[in-house]
Amino acid sequence: MGTLTYASLHLEFEDRLLQHLQIVIIQKFRRHEAFLMSWKESASAGDGRAAIWLTPNVPISFKFYGSKAPSVNRDWLSSLGRSADSSTGLIVTGEDGELALASPDSGQPGTAHQRWH
């Protein structure tokens, strides 16, 4: 599990998914584009859906807990990129196209608890 930190929000995603999200998000930010990102929450966070408006003016970081960079699936990356460019914004999905699960991060690898600052 890796952590995406945006402003005061900390979300855990599986490292391979986070690698793909990092590429898509940074591509949008390099073009100075703001966009909506939505994801499915874990049961510990209410098992619902959440969304946040991402803008390049707010610090973002990506922390990976695995020691090796995950491989990149160009088709998955393209699908996430098209989603980010759409009017619905980036809907976080897995390689299979299903909604991907995000867990609010407690600061410890592998945990899933709400963490807002």
UniProtKB/TrEMBL annotation:
Keywords from the UniProt entry: Ligase
Domain DUF7882: 1-94
GO molecular function: ligase activity
InterPro entries: DUF7882
A Pfam short name: DUF7882
Protein name per its UniProtKB record: ATP-dependent DNA ligase
